[in-house]
Design brief:
Shape: globular
Largest sheet: 9 strands, mixed
Order of helices and strands: EHEEHEHHEHEHEHEEEHEEHEEHEH
Low-confidence stretches: none
Strand order of the largest sheet: 2-3-7-4-6-5-9-10-11
Number of helices: 11
């Protein structure tokens, strides 16, 4: 059931979380499927609803820095500098977990990702529930992430008893994840807080965005993927006219030659990649719900948020 995120609906959702249920709720990144992070049985429901493999850890969401300290240990030094700079916001920090967090949340790892989201509804829900909330994206595992309440309902339906509608997500890409598991900063997932921004604050930052067994969400080779095959191209010149019949084109901005494609999704009128990021997943869903046999996606510059967009597109095409 979708409900506008009124104070009454948030209170009902918080009560559902306290009873061990699951709730879908908005953040500035994507919609999450949440459960009480300290209740292993409740968290198991998330894995069941999403058909998520047990080896893929979850992120725990909090409403205050004080609550974050009940989830992780070692929130100090450079990690604290990042938190003070970017929280509330689209940043997840991976640190040694507190004993209150069950192993199912972390896939048995000694570390856990924690985030203080920027969306007021998300923080209000966590505060009303008075407990940390474990939440991956509210969609079947591996599929395109939801950026509206309707996306959640379309994919998960009655498996989620309550979906809080807080409007479209303002960022539209999952959070940047930075690990301090060994004391030094490592970028595990690209997001709206860019590698360049992290380096400007911290200096050297390792990049470890791929792993055979993930230490954070979003590291598997195939993820964020539509059902329709997606192929990366440098330009429309890479696609002969014969291959365009029945195919769709996804482009960050205007292109000179879009003749012959069945559908064209232009993410922005001027190629602004910040805007493109907010519209990416919704565009992929529209193309996937149509009658296209293939989606050709034009590569974008891998700098700033373009690195995060290309990370999603590469995994979608794997």
């Amino acid at each position: 059931m979708i409900r506008d995120a009124t104070p009454e609906a948030i209170a009902d959702a918080a009560a559902l979380l306290r009873r061990g249920g699951v709730v879908a709720f908005p953040t500035e990144t994507v919609y999450g499927l949440g459960a009480d992070a300290t209740n292993a049985a409740a968290v198991a429901t998330i894995f069941a609803v999403k058909a998520r493999p047990a080896f893929d850890p979850l992120i725990v969401h909090v409403d205050t820095l004080a609550r974050a300290r009940t989830v992780v240990r070692g929130l100090e030094g450079e990690a604290l500098r990042l938190a003070e700079r970017y929280w509330p916001g689209p940043l997840t920090l991976v640190l040694p977990k507190h004993a209150s967090i069950p192993d199912i949340v972390t896939a048995g790892l000694p570390t856990v990702g924690v985030r203080l989201p920027g969306h007021a509804v998300a923080r209000g829900l966590i505060a009303a529930a008075d407990r940390p909330v474990a939440a991956p994206s509210a969609n079947p595992f591996g599929y395109v992430s939801p950026t509206t309440a309707a996306h959640v309902a379309d994919q998960l339906g009655d498996a989620v008893p309550l979906i809080l509608d807080g409007g479209p997500c303002a960022v539209g890409l999952e959070s940047t994840i930075v690990s301090f598991a060994d004391g030094q900063p490592a970028l595990l997932r690209s997001g709206a807080i860019t590698l360049e921004a992290l380096q400007s604050l911290l200096g050297s930052v390792r990049v470890e965005t791929d792993a055979p067994l993930p230490s954070a969400p979003g590291q598997l080779p195939r993820h964020y993927a539509p059902r329709t095959p997606l192929v990366l191209i440098d330009s429309t010149a890479d696609v002969p006219m014969t291959a365009r019949h029945g195919a769709a084109l996804l482009t960050p901005g205007p292109v000179a030659d879009a003749v012959g494609f069945r559908h064209v999704e232009q993410l922005t009128p001027d190629g602004d990649l910040l805007v493109a990021a907010t519209r990416l997943f919704a565009a992929l869903r529209r193309l996937d719900s149509g009658d296209c046999t293939r989606v050709y996606a034009v590569r974008m510059p891998e700098a700033g948020i373009g690195r995060a967009i290309m990370d999603r597109l590469r995994r979608a095409s794997a």
